[in-house]
Write a structure and sequence with these properties.
The complex is a heterodimer of chains A (about 475) and B (about 325).
Chain A (H helix, E strand, L loop, with lengths): L1 H13 L6 H14 L4 H12 L6 H12 L17 H12 L3 H12 L5 H10 L11 H11 L2 H17 L4 H33 L9 H6 L10 H25 L4 E2 L1 H7 L12 E2 L6 E7 L5 H13 L6 E7 L3 E3 L9 H11 L9 H11 L8 E6 L11 H10 L2 E6 L12 H4 L5 E4 L3 H13 L8
Parallel strand pairs in A: 3-4, 3-6, 6-7, 7-8
Antiparallel strand pairs in A: 1-2, 4-5
Helix pairs in contact in A: 1-4, 2-3, 8-10, 9-10, 12-14, 12-19, 14-19, 16-17
Chain B lengths: L6 H10 L6 H13 L3 E4 L6 H11 L3 E6 L6 H4 L1 E3 L1 H10 L1 H9 L4 H10 L1 H4 L5 E3 L1 H7 L4 E6 L6 H13 L1 E4 L3 E4 L5 E6 L7 H6 L1 E4 L5 H11 L5 H15 L9 H13 L7 H11 L3 H6 L2 H7 L1 H7 L4 H11 L1
Helix pairs in contact in B: 1-2, 1-3, 6-7, 12-13, 12-14, 14-15
Classes of the chains: A alpha/beta (about 475), B alpha/beta (about 325).
Chain lengths: ~475, ~325
């Protein structure tokens, strides 16, 4: 039982639920207290100790079912031939010859009441690719998938037609009935066998040793190599990172001793000391930056942009104002879309608004649009942040406009997923880079977090003019 | 009873406090006691999280010490503070005695040394203003410590709380380390307005209380507002349950259902018609936008029970239901 529980814990971790060693030992202690006789209590003992987040409930419930789900009642297969009269058996044997060869052997085995062999099950599991897909596979879909590869539905049809032909050939209702019952019973037992096998396979494959890499590996992996399956986990990790960033910034702000003396605050804080200023209060100089972001949301950059928006908007209270724009071939203001929805949803909404058809990244035109309509958003307190690979499809880069924007803003920072060595071909990065105060390479979620942190800490120092 | 003996015992003694505990609630409360772990209760506002702590304290006949969290809550408000005014007052009143002590001193440093010997008088428990956390630790009888709405406090306070919750001891520089005589039973509640730190969650057992099911909610209404007509109660609960599926800024919670049930009773309502509805809707919905969005008439029309009573269920009803889910 203990190893089963540890198996569940491993599977939970593989799913991205964080379970500490202390929590696992607590789970075992809780199980000891509540016992394992009552399944519901057992479940709650594990749930209260292992699951600390309401959004992990679905994952927990599913995995619990997988590891401790009640096993389906196994009916042992029985031989159907014994229940037939010799004449009926003869007719049946003839009818069997009319079946397709692939079905025939299976139906014969069902009639004989043979169970599925280990080899059959292994082959079916391999064909259903249960191992490969274990990470995001639900038990029900795994079972369905293995049923499909065993062609159980077709088998049942073949059996039915066989029984109908038997009835037409003059077999009486009663014996066809028993035959049908026996066959269905045997088929059910195959199903139970397959389901149990699928469950076992999934459990084995969810152990952490064979499962995905840890969260830290995920965060340092380049954006280009993050797949759709990693998406949820990355988003979760990024939210966690954002929380850490927020705390860090708040502490930094609170501990800063560089602010001016806050006379009123000091008097107020020291009232209880008879106004003797024992504790000094400082006023934090408003060094919260104002931020204007221009993000490339074309297919290659989209994911990176979403994550950056997530990070920036989760630390929004550290900013005076954040305005975001998205562009592919033209520019759209997206700050209003970001109110109350996740950045991913907001970016999707923007993409829907953009004209359908092929997208041709045109930073030059987007800059011109920004210059025409949104120039007022830039002032000497504002940091201009551009997120993009600078690949302009040989359109006019309009560097003179970019230069002008840079002059208006306090700072210009460019986040580019490509290292400087790759700035060739249709990349205009070499033209833009000299006009930026900083160009940071952000190829992975971790680098992105570092960049955002840097953005917020060094923002007060504008460049000398 | 000072402790819960079994899970069934939890259910029974909470029921005596007029708190209906689901299997999940009772099991987790029992575990929290057995493992000596704080219980973190999350869920929407008004589902009875704070009420649970009160019921536990009532059931165990332990004092309930409550720490209400808010932004900016710090150690001096939650743990202890030196009572400066009282210290000052004592110094004034004991001036003669102090003079006695320092009179014989030959030098200033000698006087200071003499005073330092008496320092303990001024930094003793007498002048220690105990805030909830310290009170729970120092109490000579077992207590229930309720840390309410922890999500409202800052992350820093959370970190400080971790320290207290893991050892149940506090060090006061002037007094030394104060250890808990009896480890209090700790209940933390959170409305989930922000993500709590992993470290805090790791130290707690987790319990999520969501909106109750129809039967559960009805049972609570019957218990708390027993004089309300049963069929009217059912109708009311069904209506509230329907409201929760709607797109509202603030869905009515169990506490709102109870308020409404009491309002219905006070108004002596015989059935929930449009007049009663428009008079009492503000008890259920606390946002003006919600009040505008929900028309009393449509609510009554939607209520399935109303139709069956009227004996003419119509096609609209089925549509309404699907609408609501979508």
């Amino acid at each position: 039982m203990e190893s089963r529980i540890l198996g569940l814990i491993g599977a939970l971790r593989a799913r991205g639920v964080r379970v500490s060693v202390a929590e696992s030992s607590e789970a075992l202690a809780a199980v000891q207290i509540l016992g394992i006789q009552q399944r519901d209590r057992f479940r709650m003992a594990l749930r209260a100790t292992l699951m600390k987040n309401a959004r992990d409930a679905a994952a927990f419930d599913e995995l619990f079912e997988l590891f401790f789900g009640g096993a389906p009642a196994r009916t042992s297969p029985t031989n159907a031939w014994n229940k037939l009269s010799p004449k009926e058996a003869e007719v049946l044997a003839q009818l069997l010859q009319t079946l397709v060869a692939s079905h025939r052997s299976d139906v014969e085995r069902l009639l004989a009441g043979e169970p599925l062999s280990e080899a059959d099950l292994r082959a079916a599991a391999r064909a259903a690719r249960i191992e490969d897909r274990a990470a995001d596979f639900r038990i029900s879909s795994a079972v369905q998938s293995i049923f499909r590869t065993l062609r159980l539905a077709e088998l049942q049809e073949a059996m039915e037609s066989l029984l109908n032909q038997l009835a037409r050939a003059g077999s009486n209702d009663k014996s066809t009935g028993t035959l049908r019952d026996t066959l269905l019973n045997n088929l059910d037992s195959w199903k139970a066998q397959a389901a149990a096998f699928a469950g076992q396979r999934l459990r084995e494959n969810r152990l952490p040793s064979t499962s995905q890499e840890g969260a830290s590996g995920l965060l340092t992996r380049p954006f280009s190599r993050l797949t759709g399956a990693d998406r949820n986990r990355v988003e979760r990790e990024v939210t966690r990172m954002a929380a850490a960033l927020r705390t860090k910034l708040a502490l930094r702000q609170k501990r800063s001793r560089r602010g001016n003396l806050d006379t009123k605050g000091t008097i107020r804080a020291n009232l209880r000391n008879h106004g003797v200023p024992i504790r000094l209060q400082h006023r934090f100089r408003a060094r919260k930056p104002r931020l204007v972001m221009i993000c490339d949301v074309s297919t290659s950059m989209r994911y990176c942009a979403e994550l950056m928006l997530t990070l920036v908007f989760s630390v929004q209270n550290m900013l005076t104002k954040a305005t975001a724009f998205a562009f592919i071939d033209h520019l759209e203001e997206i700050s209003s879309d970001l109110a109350g929805v996740s950045p991913a949803a907001a970016v999707t909404a923007v993409l829907l608004r953009m004209p359908p058809g092929h997208y041709n990244t045109d930073l030059g035109a987007s800059l011109a649009e920004f210059h025409r309509y949104y120039l007022h958003t830039l002032d000497r307190q504002t940091t201009l942040l551009v997120l993009g690979d600078g690949r302009n499809n040989f359109n006019d880069p309009k560097t003179e406009l970019f230069h002008e924007l840079g002059k208006r803003a306090a700072r210009v920072i460019w986040l580019n997923p490509e290292p400087a060595g790759n700035w060739d071909g249709d990349s205009d990065m070499r033209k833009y880079a000299p006009l930026c105060d900083e160009v940071l390479k952000v190829a992975s979620p971790r680098e992105l977090a570092v960049a955002v942190d840097r953005l917020l800490t060094h923002s007060s120092q504008g460049r000398p003019r | 009873v000072d402790r819960f003996e079994t899970v069934e015992g939890v259910v029974a003694s909470l029921a005596k406090q007029r708190y209906i505990a689901t299997a999940e609630i009772s099991t987790t409360v029992f575990l929290s006691q057995q493992l000596g772990k704080p219980l973190l209760v999350e869920g929407p506002a008004g589902v009875g999280k704070t009420e649970l702590a009160k019921a536990i304290s009532g059931a165990l006949q332990r004092e309930l010490i409550r720490l209400q969290c808010y932004e900016g809550l710090d150690e001096s408000k939650s743990l202890y503070e030196w009572e400066y005014a009282k210290q000052l007052l004592y110094t004034q009143m004991l001036r003669d005695k102090l003079n006695d002590v320092t009179r014989k001193a030959r030098s200033l440093s000698d006087a200071a040394n003499k005073l330092a010997e008496e320092e303990d008088v001024f930094f003793s428990r007498r002048f220690l203003l105990q805030r909830p956390l310290l009170r729970a630790i120092l109490s000579d009888r077992p207590t229930v410590l309720l840390i309410d709405e922890i999500d409202r406090a800052d992350a820093e306070f959370e970190a400080f709380l971790l320290e207290v919750l893991s050892d149940f001891q506090v060090s006061v520089p002037e007094l030394g380390t104060l250890r808990a005589v009896h480890q209090p039973l700790v209940v933390l509640t959170s409305n989930n307005t922000r993500e709590l730190s992993e470290a805090l969650k790791r130290r707690c057992l987790y319990l999520f209380i969501g909106y109750p099911s129809l039967e559960e909610e009805l049972a609570v209404v019957r218990l708390k507002v027993p004089r309300l007509d049963p069929s009217l109660a059912r109708q009311a609960v069904q209506l509230v349950q329907g409201l929760r599926h709607r797109d509202l800024r603030k869905a009515p919670s169990l506490s709102e259902t109870l308020d409404w049930a009491r309002a219905l009773l006070e108004l002596n309502a015989q059935e929930i018609d449009e007049r009663v509805m428009s008079a009492t809707l503000s008890v259920l919905l606390k946002h003006e936008a919600d009040l505008h969005r929900v028309m009393p008439r449509s609510l009554i029309a939607e209520n399935p029970l109303h139709h069956t009573r009227g004996g003419q269920p119509n096609a609209d009803q089925a549509e309404d239901w699907t609408d609501r889910r979508g």
